[in-house]
Design brief:
- The protein is mainly alpha-helical.
- The protein has two domains: about 110 residues, Helix Hairpins (Orthogonal Bundle), CATH 1.10.287.3610; about 110 residues, no CATH class.
- About 80% of the residues lie in helices and about 0% in strands.
- It is built from eight helices and no strands.
- The radius of gyration is 22 Å and the shape is flat.
Length: about 240
């Protein structure tokens, strides 16, 4: 006689759902980090007394990340059950599900930045004036995200390397020079400007020393990061 897995009462369904959440939190390290981050972000939002709309958007973003992680865990369990041996399609299914979690997490970070940055940086405006200017901060975040998206699109189109290893252009160089350009546009002291671009150059050089990228791929990444960041800052200005 087959055992009935489907709960017959609404309360039993709720208990099963709670068991699923608890099991995920108990067995998945990433889920525990997501819960801790969610608590920290929401408590910060309450302490900073953000608006109701900002809090609603922040809570929605946090919820989407948790839901994505739950679905990712469920899919991994099913894939392991159906395909206990390694299979390329099973690996692709897991990677796509993990990608959904990453996309939701990046979106939540962007929303958290937009909702909290003005109040978090408000106390620094007197000491460091340029850090408190919202347009520059928003332009920097948008620039970095745009560069990352373009790198993924280029690598997907050219079919070389992965988003984190090899291929045209170098994602590490692109993001490093995008951040360096944003700092430069914030009119920092010359020594900080030199240190920032020096750090970006060191990141790019490490990709060459490790033979992950060619000089052309690193140069293309650097030009992509600088060019996109200049264009976006010009649009914001």
């Amino acid at each position: 006689m087959k055992k009935e897995f489907k709960p017959s009462r609404w309360l039993d369904s709720v208990n099963c759902a709670i068991d699923g959440i608890l099991w995920t939190a108990r067995t998945q390290r990433h889920m525990r980090w997501h819960f801790l981050a969610a608590v920290g972000v929401l408590l910060t939002a309450v302490l900073l007394r953000i608006s109701a709309l900002e809090f609603a958007l922040l809570a929605l973003a946090v919820t989407l990340v948790l839901v994505a992680e739950l679905l990712n865990t469920a899919l991994e369990v099913v894939v392991d059950l159906v395909s206990p041996e390694f299979h390329k399609l099973a690996q692709c299914a897991k990677d796509v599900a993990a990608g959904a979690v990453l996309v939701s997490a990046v979106g939540a970070v962007v929303i958290a930045y937009l909702a909290l940055s003005h109040r978090l940086l408000h106390g620094m405006e007197a000491a460091i004036g340029h850090l408190g200017q919202p347009p520059e901060g928003e332009a920097s975040v948008v620039s970095a995200l745009t560069v990352i998206i373009l790198v993924v699109l280029f690598k997907g189109r050219l079919g070389r390397g992965t988003p984190l290893h090899g291929g045209m252009p170098s994602g590490h160089a692109a993001v490093a020079f995008s951040i360096a350009t944003s700092i430069a546009l914030a009119q920092v002291a010359p020594i900080l400007l030199l240190l920032t671009f020096g750090m970006a150059t060191m990141v790019s050089q490490s990709r060459l020393l490790m033979r992950i990228h060619s000089l052309a791929e690193v140069a293309a990444g650097a030009l992509l990061g600088i060019g996109v960041t200049l264009v976006i800052h010009f649009i914001f200005a």
